[in-house]
Amino acid sequence: MTTIDRDVSPPGDQRHPDQLHSDLNEIWGNPRGLKALTIVNHTTLGLRFMITGMVFFLIGGMLAMLVRTQLALPDQDFMTPDIYNQVTTMHGTVMMFLFAIPILEGLAIYMIPKMIGARDLVCPRLTSLGYWCYLFGGIIITFSLIIEMAPNSGWFMYTPLSSSEYSPGLGSDFWLLGITFVEISALSAGVELVVSILRTRTQGMALHKMPLFAWYILAMAMMIVLGFPPLILGSILLELERAAGMPFFDVAGGGDPILWQHLFWLFGHPEVYIIFLPAAGIVSTLIPVFAGRPIVGYGWVVFAIITTGFISFGLWVHHMFTVGIPQLAQAFFSAASMLVAVPTAIQVFVWLATLWLGKPKMKLPMLWIVGFLVIFVCGGLTGVMLALVPFNWQVHDTHFVVAHMHYVLVGGMFFPLIAGLYYWLPLFSGRMPSETLGKWGFWLTFIGFNTTFLIMHWTGLLGMPRRVYSYEPGMGWDITNLISSVGGFIMSAGIAMVLLDMALHFRFGKPAKTNPWHSDGLEWANRMPPSAYNFVSLPNIETRHPLWDDPELPRTIAEGQHGLAVATHGRREMWGTDPLTGKVREIIHLPGNSWWPLFAAMALAVVCLSLLTRLYPLAAIAVVIAVLFLLRWSWENGAHPKAAPDAQVAPGDPPLHSRTMDGPGLWAMSITMLANGSFFLSYLFGWFYLWTVSPGWRMPDESPLSLVGLLVAGGVLTLGAGILEKQVHGLRQKRDAGLAIGMFGISALGFVQVGITLWVLLSAELAVTESSHDAIIMVGLAYALLHGGLGAVLALLQGLRVGFGYVGAHAPFEPAVVAQLWRYNVATFWIIVGALAVLPRVIGS
Amino acid sequence: MRLSVQHLISTRRLISIQRLTQPWVNRLGIQLVLLATLMLSGCAGDKSILDPAGQAARDVVMIWWVMLGFGTVVLVMVTVLWLFTFKRKEVTRTPAEERRVARRWIIGGGILLPVASITALLAFGVPTGQRMLTLPLGEPPEVIEVIGHQWWWEVRYPGAEGGEVVTSNQLIMPAGEPVDFHVTGADVIHAFWVPRLGGKIDMVPGRVNKIRLEADEPAVFGAQCAEFCGAQHTQMQLYVEAVERDEYDAWLAARQENPLSSLATNDQQHEPAREAFMNHCASCHRVAGLSNGDEGPDLSDLGSRTSLGAGIMAMEEGAVTHWLQHHQQLKPGNKMPPHDDIDTATLASLGAWLETLTP
Q: What is the ipTM metric for this complex?
């Protein structure tokens, strides 16, 4: 690992700025027409995420208006009970999974490289895969509404209601398969953002100097990495129960419906902070700009962000206070749920202090920030109320919770989002938004929102439960529901006005000057709209306020006065830097436009649809095709002719990342293994939970798993991993003798391990449809098989690549990445053996 | 004010046969009158959390008002401070002074304020829930079992003198003493909730959850399923009647196996109806002395109940027949098969006979 201490790099190739621009555009430029489907550039993809998110927002909003229309008066029935239940379920599902997360992801994807002085995210093709998976998955789920087969068990799909006995038909399957498909996009964005923020910041930008927005997104991305896998596991288990009869949640088979709730909320609570943190990041970015001074407590805010992230993983049971959890556990989760108010309050008062010590101006984005404050603080306060268990027992599952939830989500996410969109609109388009139309939009939305949801707290206190398709008159709910429905229409008008304003400004907005809000943020050093490569040259940034400390930066960057202002080698390049200090370590070369992400997403869509329609042979074929596409994609890496066959760099420049052993690929694999680990920990939780708590659990006296078989398989796997470590160690010392043979040997050992594990699985003769014990063991062994197989295949490919000359002492980084997977496989394999085969033998049933 | 169940139901717009035949204008007029009445009563309502009829519910309401007051003060204060920063005249400060001001706001508002509030809330709030826990008492309280089905209530009295009493879609409890409810779900997760008496508890298949409720005085309370349980979650309602202890004991005694059996089998004139019942209904419904079906609600004392269909229809003359004829329109998707194969006369006689099952 080389760390290079550099001042502004000598321009070397002193070209005219326009020439530099067109050179860079040739390498980075976006194609038009059909080829636009191959774009991997983060600016375009970020915009696609945001626009698609807005479309889903409108769909979710229309569903809400259908609900409010039905509930405006008592005894209405223009929607039958089943349709109404589909509409409410889809409103929640679309808003949470297809709007809130993707649009904030999109903003982060767009903004982060520009804020940290990078030219793109670190895995551009992965960004593209994420977008297509989101689009296709979203279309599949939304399609279910058109055929009136949408899921109807509520957006959190509690079992047994959502299982095949009580929800026959495709509704639940649309949800389980479609949402898991969309989650690929969340996870890929999460991994990418973590690695990008840690390893691609521009030269000199130390961790404690990076913009606060980057801290918020780093926390959000880590939370996605750790928080989404429990739901993915839960969805897989429920789909297996529905499609194959494996009783994870069915009491008769030894399962427990409460397990679903734990897995769902282990995801569900961090989810709402995943939604809130980026929005708070927008607030922390805008307030200093409009107060004309730096934020007063940068360190406090970072502390608050990290604390929120941690605490949010320890709150999930507060959604389950009425389920029959032991009292001591309830007390813990109650106190923790209140405690999370502290880091939030710290942020609120940091913002207040910044405004207090500055000269705040009420421009349009700031108006939305004030709206955020009022609504979000109200929602936070009702949240603390809900954390008190006796009060929760009364208002849980009533409209009080519906009101609380909309206050924190709309106040805490939607208002800051609109503030941010108005603020960054000049960057997107080069034009300024209108103050007048914008103000009207704000007030209608603000008044409409509060009219709808403030009185809804009262409706809940008068006893109206959630998810009822109508209500009788005479309960005191009539007038409150009517007011809420009227408010809904006002709010719709306001939102329509806001969207109209934003759409119109692309045509009629006044052209914007450079840095129109006098911001300190590096993103404003871009052209407006930005060029595909963001910065002509990458500056050395050692301050938290780049454009305040050096207002000439936009000009000097565009003139090519800083680093990597060259395009002669034809590569897409940016700095790879040290995560703590920001010192340059390598030059990261990025792939250009590619069809592979689209093809892979299309194959995955076929998998999703064929599982949905129970055409399993087709699903199997589609899985194979998807894997082939993904592997083919991974082939075009490193020293491959299509990537960076020639490792030449300008004299004095650091090496290309693919010629080192610590490139972003290794980091991406490590972060992905964190996500995988979260999935695995959730699985272990499920195993131990069912074992200890499930009411009908039946464990055989003798474990069906052959301990000998597992020990041999584990030994073979460990042997393979050990050899791989030796190879990697050799590569570190530039030795690659016998690398190809070694890889093939490792791969063979991997396949042997898979074979033995498969034998253990088959010889156990698990009755997976009769016993949750057998079913959950099957899942664990299947996990081990899949990972072992993947490790073996990747080792095989490495051997082939050595043969082709793409991997060796001259390009050593790929084996290190594969070794990381093997380490993970070994660790999880032994844990599986311990938990599933050894512990039962030791403890007994 | 002591309300009888009939009075309560008749002032409400349940789907009863008379209502269905009245002209539209009449309905609107009644609605306006009801609206006016209820606006005046504000917090009151059959299912209103803010109209407690038991100590546990009263404790929660009190904590609610305190939390509301405090929350409003905090919200107003924070908003006013933020808005004030836009109007304030500029003050010049040294960096050290700035840091001091900032620290005061951040520590005072960001740490001390929430920590103090949370501590107070937990200290005063947690004990308010104690009453609802089923902790051991000197004298063991009455136990009532409630089992949630899609979309009806099975109610069992295991401690009744003379043997367990079973009924459906009605719940009588003794007033003025703590009662323990043991609940579970038969199919999906439901929740048992009597808002005026206390919190809700989920009815989860495979487990038995417990909650303790106490009604101050005899009265009728609205209750409903409070965990989304499918298509007719909305119409899974219940009337909970608290009565004096001796009335409760008498009610239980009248529903022992013997009195119920003779009630069902004595009257000769209803023999054809009984036969129809055995042919079409007995496999799912229990009537003491005749059948033991347990798919659908127990019907042994149907005539004495105040509502039908899990609280959605008032029990009046002809109501049972009306339900038998139109139940899929009244509660679409309910699990009783539509009786297109039975002629109207038979249904009418069934209805008439079931209405006589009044202990």
A: 0.93
